[in-house]
């Protein structure tokens, strides 16, 4: 598993020294879906004792239990969680306890669930969900359907009318037997159009349409779209249309997906209100009535959604991917004439356009969509669901991430006043090719660049800059980006890419690809070796004869253990994942200091760092100081903590952007120093999480930028360049300063604090325009060198 890698033991040892919370790594493991993270947690489990060992065992069990590679991993997770719960372990928090309940339901281990349920630290809603499943005879054969409906009505429906199950008949599943005793058609008013798109349906379409016909709201137009299912499905559609005169079947000439079908149906709709229903779902009889009432009560409300609950055919709630209940986009209802002429259409793609439409509505008309509290939609989670395998707890498919990032970029423009109208012939934002109705073939790309494009850190910002420079220098270059996350201690990330990447993709300068897109490239470039150390378990579709790895440090650096990599492992990984030979591209350091003599290297190096263009600034005063921690490890973190205390104690206004673990350490040590009377602060330091604010915002107001534990020369040079571009005076440790670095050296936190307080510090200046020209030439030389034969270092 890990005995052939040199990097993971180093990282594990540092995690142990820093006493990092095991569940931070578990959250990251679920987000990246990387086997390496799972192996790392196994190392931590085996290297620790007592409570720490229990926590790492639980953390690993949580990660593999959500997405097991096979039944053995699922059983491992279940047994670890079960044993911990049985002994009342404090490590079994609500998330882990809920997962255990899901797994026991999935395995139908009813006696075990009944035994441990009273001991589990569950949130009330989680306990209720498991109680419903224990009442389900499909889970516990000693129960019965009446017990299940009584429990379900009490817990899920609350004040809404109760449901029941009709008697078993033929092969109808329990889901298809959902019903209610509420009389249909007892109220009415404005016409409501309900749109149900379908493709090659079975009996589940009848269930869906019947649930709409059973609504208490009688004034309905039900448009069922046959998305070119084929003549063999004509009997189903005839049966559906014969159910009621209010049902009309529309046939598409070609299969164009759910959202093209909805667009066509809305064009033909006559209703004052429009809403939707999936072809295999079941609507509570009061759903339409309550949604109309919410819209009619307030003309400022533009859209209404209802809560939904996800169920199997056997009406089982618990699944590892389930989120209990939530407001869902397919239930959206809006006024047709108020919305449709101004918004144009659903995005005509295969997936996710209902979510985009709801987000667009909220971006253009903020605060004017509401969610009803009652659970009024029952969603069938079948094996054929378009989204079933694309979402898990903490993870989403990379194509979903691409689409979401692109749509949010456009929606930002709507908030600034752009039109929300979306035509059907011209795209407003790029879409993953796998979402296209007719998928265009991928070209052979000149360059595919791998990096952690959700990370707003110096390395990624620098890489985005040189990628944009390459594209601008020759618009014919076919460049694509693929998101891969390396090692971090950030359990939370924004769901979109960093600003320069979003801007490039939106402008068509580069294309965003998913890791499993089947793509051929002339070469792949990875901006840092750690991105290849934590590849997802998802199959790679990328292929290239060469994988160029940009490297700015040796395999192990004592003060930067989390930047450790194993070159042999990376070369094997690159070959198996992408089919190419690894070529190492040293940067900011001589080749012999980072690459063994028997490895292939590029003949020309990238410039050490690129100077960004002028950056936004906020009027500041002399006391504002931003602290940048270049290397996360135990010793550098203590240095950063000492720097924050020294600067804040001198009366300076300190700002810092860092992860949760570092924030807890710095806050804790500052609080302890305050308690001992060792420091007195005028301004409490402002410590921001990376997902809360961009790095440039923190730097924009600073008069001074202080770098602590700067890491590689490449990263230090970039941080200094960003400080200069923001108009800040930059200070670096004297041990890291080198000739030509446009920054002032400092000896200690106390000395620097005195210097900043006592008088003005002369700014170190540099001819940035000349430097940018040199860097542009160096970048082109590097790119040209990639096309030349490479030799051994």
TrEMBL record:
Source organism phylogeny: Bacteria, Bacillati, Actinomycetota, Actinomycetes, Micrococcales
InterPro entries xrefs: Glyco_trans_2-like, Glycosyltransf_2, Nucleotide-diphossugar_trans
Sequence ranges assigned to domain Glycosyltransferase 2-like in this UniProt record: 193-309
Membrane-spanning intervals of the chain: none
Protein name, as recorded: Glycosyltransferase 2-like domain-containing protein
Lineage: superkingdom: Bacteria
